[in-house]
Write a structure and sequence with these properties.
By secondary structure, the chain is an alpha+beta fold. It has eight helices and 13 strands. The chain folds into three domains: 2-78 and 249-260, Rossmann fold (3-Layer(aba) Sandwich); 87-100 and 164-238, 2-Layer Sandwich (D-amino Acid Aminotransferase, Chain A, domain 1); 106-160, Dna Ligase, domain 1. The strands form three sheets. A five-stranded antiparallel sheet has the order 11-10-9-12-13. Helix 1 crosses helix 8 (248-260). The protein is globular, with a radius of gyration of 19 Å.
C-alpha cells in the first residue's frame, strides 16, 4: 500500500507526523512526502500515483495540487471538497448554521473599515476569511483599533467576540474518538500547546459531532470558547496538529491505515 502525504517541507517534521508515518509502516504501508512548493509541475501530468493521499497541508498550492488529483480520481483524506468548504470561513459558517452549531454572529466585509457598525453590538474578532493557526486575528473593541488594521488586510471575516470563561477548548476527532484539550491562548510554549486533557461529554460532544456531520468528515479539530457556561465554535481545522492527544501519531496511523485498507 503506497501513501502520499501532501505537506509543507520543514527542517524538523512534527513528532506526531513522524509517529503517524512510523505506525503506517507497521501496517505495511509506505509513505512518501509530497511537497507541492518544491518544484514546477506540468498540470497535464498530475495524475494519481498513490493508493491514498493524506492532505496535511492547506497552502494555496497544496489545495490546487490536491484539487487536480481529486479531479483525476485520487482518493484523498480529508476529501478536497470538504477541506475547501472548511477552509473558507464564510462557506464553513453557512454549512454549520443549519446543523444547529452554536456560532457567534458573523459579518462579511470587503475591508475592516466597513465593520464599524458591527462594533455597536460589542467587541468583535476580525480575521482573514481564508486563514488558520491564528494568523491575522485581531480582537477589536474600538473604532481606533479597527482603523489600525492594515489597509491590505483583504476580504474580512468578523464575529462577535466572547470572552472565555477560562482556558480555550480544543476538540480533536479521529474516527469515532473525541479528545479534549484545554489551552491558554495565545499558546507561547510547547507545553502551552500540549495543554490539559479533559473528557468531551454532553453538549460539547454533541456540537463536535454536528460539525463533522455538516462536512461529512470524522478527522478534524475545533476551537471552542466557553462563555457564561455556553460553548461557541470559533474555528474548525481540517488536519490539526493533534497536540495534547495521547498517542496521537499511533491513532492517526491506525485511522488512515483503515481507510487505505492496509493490513
Amino acid at each position: 500500500m503506497r501513501l502520499g502525504l501532501i505537506t509543507v517541507q520543514k527542517e524538523k517534521p512534527s513528532p506526531v507526523v513522524g509517529e503517524m508515518v512510523a505506525r503506517l509502516g507497521e501496517h505495511g504501508a509506505t509513505v512518501d512526502m509530497l511537497y507541492p512548493e518544491d518544484r514546477a509541475r506540468d498540470v497535464a501530468e498530475v495524475r494519481p500515483e498513490y493508493d491514498l493521499y493524506i492532505l496535511k497541508s492547506s497552502t494555496r498550492l497544496a489545495m490546487v495540487y490536491a484539487g487536480l488529483l481529486h479531479q483525476a480520481g485520487a482518493r484523498i483524506v480529508n476529501p478536497v471538497p470538504a477541506v475547501t468548504l472548511m477552509k473558507d470561513k464564510y462557506s464553513a459558517t453557512a454549512a454549520l448554521l443549519p446543523a444547529g452549531v452554536p456560532l457567534p454572529r458573523t459579518w462579511m466585509a470587503e475591508s475592516p473599515a466597513q465593520l464599524a457598525g458591527a462594533l455597536a453590538t460589542g467587541p468583535i474578532v476580525v480575521k482573514p476569511y481564508f486563514g488558520s493557526q491564528g494568523r491575522g486575528v485581531h480582537i477589536v473593541h474600538t473604532r481606533a483599533e479597527l482603523d489600525a488594521i492594515p489597509d491590505d488586510f483583504g476580504i474580512t471575516f468578523a464575529q462577535t467576540y466572547y470572552e472565555s470563561d477560562g482556558r480555550d477548548h480544543k476538540i480533536y476527532r479521529i474516527g469515532d474518538e473525541l479528545f479534549g484539550v484545554r489551552r491558554v491562548w495565545p499558546a507561547r510554549t510547547y507545553e502551552d500547546k500540549l495543554g490539559e486533557p479533559f473528557e468531551v461529554t454532553g453538549e460539547m460532544r454533541d456540537v463536535t459531532l454536528r460539525c463533522g456531520d455538516a462536512f461529512g468528515v470524522d478527522l478534524y479539530g475545533l476551537d471552542i470558547i466557553m462563555n457564561d457556561g455556553r460553548p461557541w465554535v470559533v474555528d474548525i481545522n481540517t488536519f490539526p496538529g493533534f497536540k495534547g492527544v495521547p498517542d496521537a501519531g499511533r491513532r492517526l496511523g491506525d485511522y488512515i491505515a483503515g481507510l487505505a485498507g492496509a493490513k
